[in-house]
Design goal:
The complex is a heterodimer of chains A (about 325) and B (about 300). Chain A is mostly helical. Helix content of chain A is about 75%, strand content about 0%. Chain A contains 14 helices and 4 strands. In chain A, α4 runs antiparallel to α10. Chain B has a two-stranded antiparallel sheet with strand order 1-2. The chains are: A mainly alpha (about 325), B mainly alpha (about 300).
């Protein structure tokens, strides 16, 4: 897919990005409370998938253990709130990022020794270590009950906004939406810079041909390790943001099917494009919520979507739209 | 002393079931280079089908020896049904994807997992389904001062027979030669006139049969419940990673290691029992990526 390599022109980029940001900023005034809440979930998952795609789309490594980093971010926030009685969300995010950074530096150091299917299984095995610990050490983690993080226990912007008393729920949703949106935009900008930097180009070179990349002097294993840590940190950031919204963190987000959902989101949007995981995560979130709401057999619905997607539209939503646009432009 | 004997028997029982599941997973990987994420779900589906077949023909009550014989004869239906499912899935869903990057095949098996998990819920409902009457009517034997269910010994026997059978099949028959040839070099095998497409469908069906058989033999001892497949898959992964991806001997040794560690774990270090297993798998991948018996 050469489209990902050349990249869109700056003009086209602005023509897409500016309206998209404006729409995201204005949407809550139109769509109401519940839809806004759904969109926050979508945006947090988008950050996670964006990070995940640095490995899959740009480095060519399929991780089947990114639930570990999402869960690490989430559980760290829960511990900070519950045990250290810290209320500031900024400190919580910082803590979540730090712990994800540490654990992914360790796991990544081990995992990047392999590629392809061995890499996938290794990431899977290590993520399940964390899951089983969260599952079994119930006096620390609450076991399957998880840890509650009520929204009244966090404050935003260093204590400027708190969510106690009457109307706290709607105040929280609207404030948190813009909070997450800003973090999301920063994350997108940072990722954009990363993948278009020499470092990002080197990752793509590794993806396309490992041997040649090492011949031109790229230290393949170290680059993969750094990519792994960055990727996991984005996912950890998403986990940290997700906790106060969800109000609860359970071992389910550490269990391997959640890693599968992250892969699903990314492929749904299209992993050969920068915006694919963002679109995919938001779309997947809506898809899952409506499937769960409309049928108890929601997994069946999602599974069929995945199968059809892989068979018919392997380039995902963004890739397919891109192809359509390219065809329309041709005289 | 008696307790130790029981624990050892339990470990071997558990290893027999785990071997059936992981041998199928390993066979499919060895021949087709596919990591089948739906494999655990095939195992669960096999358990459901067998329990349903036994329950709907004979009811839940324990009967005489003729009834027992009938029930035992019905158990393999689960395995056969899953083999049939596999024989349908391979040509329709997997074959179109072999030319694409391997991520897509992995994803489609993940989609299959989601679909089949709900198909089970749809067909058999949310309540556990058991064929416990078989276990009850077979009674138990005494080991020292303790009792041990006879049926568990049957399962151990099935596991041993399956290991011997599979070994003979792969290493002593003409089809086994074709299977191994395809696994080593697909193009060469195809050039020499082997119908690779047929070998693939057969290998996949046999792998599924093993998973279904695992479910079929386990269901008189443990009821089939939703989610059992997802749990089993990860343990089967640990087994084949320890033993070596694609190796049958490896699956056998891996299953024994995992089940003995697990039994010891539950006894002595229950909190980290699962974590230890995953760490062993990770350590094996690091030190010897091909596993104990795998080839590069």
């Amino acid at each position: 897919m050469p489209a990902a390599r050349t990249g869109p022109s700056p003009k086209l980029l602005l023509a897409v990005a500016v309206p998209a940001v404006l729409v995201l900023a204005l949407l809550p005034t139109v769509i109401g409370l519940y839809q806004t809440e759904l969109l926050i979930y979508g945006l947090t998952f988008a950050i996670a998938a964006l990070g995940f795609n640095l490995l899959l789309g740009y480095t060519g490594l399929l991780s089947f253990g990114h639930s570990a980093y999402f869960g690490m971010g989430a559980y760290t926030v829960a511990f900070i709130v519950r045990d250290l009685h810290v209320q500031s969300m900024e400190l919580c995010i910082l803590g979540g990022l730090l712990s994800t950074l540490l654990i992914s530096a360790l796991f990544g150091y081990v995992c990047v020794r392999h590629t392809r299917i061995f890499f996938g299984i290794l990431t899977l095995a290590l993520s399940q270590v964390l899951w089983s610990l969260a599952f079994k050490f119930f006096w620390v983690t609450g076991g399957t009950d998880g840890i509650r993080v009520p929204r009244s226990s966090v404050t935003l912007l260093a204590g400027l906004l708190d969510f106690k008393g009457a109307g706290a729920y709607s105040r929280f949703v609207y404030a948190y939406y813009y909070y997450v949106l800003i973090v999301f935009l920063i994350a997108v900008a940072v990722m954009w810079v990363i993948v278009h930097s020499p470092f990002g180009k080197a990752l793509q070179a590794i993806r396309d041909n490992e041997t040649r990349a090492s011949f031109v002097g790229i230290r393949v294993r170290r680059y993969r390790w750094i990519a792994f840590v960055i990727s996991a940190s984005f996912t950890g950031l998403a986990g940290a943001l997700w906790v106060p919204l969800n109000g609860l963190t359970t071992p389910e987000i550490l269990y391997w099917p959640f890693s599968g959902e992250l892969v699903f989101m990314t492929v749904l949007g299209g992993f050969r494009t920068f915006s694919g995981p963002i679109v995919g995560a938001i779309a997947f979130n809506y898809l899952k919520v409506y499937a769960v709401a409309s049928s108890q057999y929601w997994q069946l619905v999602l599974g069929c979507v995945l199968v059809v997607l892989v068979m018919v539209l392997p380039t995902g939503i963004v890739g397919t739209i891109g192809r359509f646009v390219a065809q329309m432009r041709r005289p | 002393m008696d307790t130790l004997a029981i624990q050892i028997l339990n470990s071997i029982f558990y290893a027999a079931v785990l071997f059936l599941i992981s041998a199928g997973l390993s066979l499919i990987y060895g021949v087709m280079r596919i990591v089948n994420l739906a494999h655990g779900t095939f195992y669960a589906l096999g358990a459901y089908v067998s329990a349903w077949a036994v329950g709907s023909v004979f009811g839940a009550a324990a009967g005489g020896s003729w009834v027992l014989a009938g029930q035992l004869a019905l158990l393999p239906i689960g395995a056969l049904a899953i083999a049939a499912v596999g024989a349908v899935i391979e040509p329709t869903l997997l074959r179109p994807l072999y030319r694409r990057p391997e991520e897509y095949v992995l994803l489609i098996t993940f989609g299959l997992l989601m679909i089949l998990e709900d198909v089970m819920k749809l067909l058999f409902g949310g309540t556990p389904l058991s064929a416990g009457s078989i276990m009850d009517s077979m009674g138990s034997i005494s080991i020292g001062r303790l009792l041990y269910p006879t049926y568990n010994l049957v399962v151990i026997g099935v596991g041993i027979l399956a290991a011997i059978g599979l070994w003979g099949f792969v290493y002593r028959t003409r089809f086994g030669v074709m299977l191994r040839a395809t696994s080593q070099d697909r193009r060469m095998a195809s050039a020499l006139g082997i119908n690779v497409g047929r070998v693939y469908v057969q290998a996949f069906a046999i792998g599924c049969f093993m998973a279904g058989l695992g479910g079929a033999v386990v269901v008189p001892a443990q009821a089939a419940v939703l989610g059992m497949g997802v749990d089993a898959l990860i343990l089967a992964f640990v087994v084949i990673v320890i033993g070596g991806l694609g190796s049958l001997e490896g699956a056998l040794v891996g299953a024994l290691i995992v089940s003995f560690v697990r039994t010891a774990g539950i006894q002595f270090f229950a909190e980290v029992e699962l974590a230890v297993l995953y760490l062993i798998a990770a350590a094996v991948l690091l030190i010897r990526p091909t596993g104990l018996f795998g080839r590069a």
